[in-house]
């Protein structure tokens, strides 16, 4: 006799983890610390759950996800918006930590999101450094905007000192990021492959390595969807709506968008594709997004085949009338 499937939802807060099991309806809570993780993993391991689901909560979920993964438990992280939409669709409008855990367990049963391997320790360290660099850059932008509006000489001096300090921190992080890449031969090789593509500089390559570890593993459609540049149909009956893009990893998409604006001028393959789209009357932003999608698909193939970037001469010489449609 086979054991019935068991699905677990974990609602993560700063001090506590609320846990719910479905279909038993059992709920309990543990502290959000190492002691709580040990209790949680011991209790869940005895039940052999089919799937454990928790929401992305700005990084607070990472310690418990790592603890469960190391304990051999099947856990995955899902988008919080999708879970709230699921709760509304099932008529669950009230919101408490316990109810959220129950909804997560029911979501696990209904949707069964894929369990993905977590990055190794080296990639997690690289990601932490990259995230901190983005935070420092955001603070630099905010302080420079404040400097432009400041009237007081004392305030301006204070802001200038803070900007100087933040610039020093950014340089330190750049050095630490490169050292982290060079410490691992495989990561160093992937970094060099990415930098071989015209338009991809060290910052974009580091962003891809840290925030898109699936590069080179997924299919072209999957990697485009993960970045958020896969076209979404809007059709109903005879109506054919305009294709749009939605979702994806914002930090990766932002970095690749800036790389694409460079590539349409200096990367022969991307430049040829961009010019073909403009010649067909596509708006510039539509053409840029299409080029971004082509760029990330080519980078994905480049990492998968372990070959540096090569321009596609046949695409550059292809007549406009035979160019592929924007996808």
TrEMBL record:
One of its GO terms (biological process) is DNA transposition. Residues 8-149 form the Transposase IS110-like N-terminal domain. Pfam families: DEDD_Tnp_IS110, Transposase_20. InterPro entries: Transp_IS110-like_N, Transpos_IS110, Transposase_20. GO terms for molecular function: DNA binding; transposase activity. Residues 192-275 form the Transposase IS116/IS110/IS902 C-terminal domain. PANTHER family: TRANSPOSASE, TRANSPOSASE FOR INSERTION SEQUENCE ELEMENT IS1111A. This is Transposase. It comes from Deinococcus peraridilitoris (strain DSM 19664 / LMG 22246 / CIP 109416 / KR-200).
């Amino acid at each position: 006799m086979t054991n019935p499937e068991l699905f677990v939802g974990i609602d993560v807060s700063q001090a506590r983890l609320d846990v719910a099991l479905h279909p038993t309806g059992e709920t309990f809570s543990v502290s959000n610390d190492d002691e709580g993780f040990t209790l949680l993993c011991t209790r869940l391991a005895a039940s052999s759950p089919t799937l454990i689901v928790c929401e992305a909560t700005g990084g607070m979920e990472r310690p418990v996800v790592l603890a469960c993964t190391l304990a051999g438990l099947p856990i995955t992280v899902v988008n919080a918006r999708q879970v709230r939409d699921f709760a509304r669709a099932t008529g669950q409008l009230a919101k408490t930590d316990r109810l959220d855990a129950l909804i997560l367990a029911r979501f696990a049963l209904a949707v069964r999101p894929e369990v993905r391997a977590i990055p190794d320790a080296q990639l997690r360290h690289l990601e932490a450094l990259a995230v901190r660099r983005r935070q420092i850059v955001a603070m630099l932008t905010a302080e420079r905007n404040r400097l432009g509006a400041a009237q007081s000489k004392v305030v301006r001096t204070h802001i200038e000192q803070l900007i100087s300090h933040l610039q020093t921190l950014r340089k330190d992080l750049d050095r630490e990021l490169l050292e982290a890449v060079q410490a691992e031969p495989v990561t160093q090789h992937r970094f060099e492959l990415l930098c071989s593509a015209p338009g991809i500089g060290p910052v974009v390559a580091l962003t891809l390595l840290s925030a898109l570890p699936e590069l080179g593993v997924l299919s072209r459609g999957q990697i485009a969807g993960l970045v958020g540049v896969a076209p979404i149909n809007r059709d109903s009956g005879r109506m054919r709506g305009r294709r749009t893009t939605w979702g994806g990893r914002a930090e990766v998409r932002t970095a690749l968008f800036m790389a694409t604006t460079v590539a349409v001028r200096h990367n022969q393959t991307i430049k040829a594709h961009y010019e073909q789209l403009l010649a067909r009357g596509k708006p510039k932003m539509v053409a840029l997004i299409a080029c971004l999608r082509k760029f990330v698909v080519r980078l994905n193939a480049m990492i998968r085949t372990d070959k540096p970037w090569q321009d596609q001469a046949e695409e550059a010489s292809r007549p406009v009338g035979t160019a592929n449609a924007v996808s």
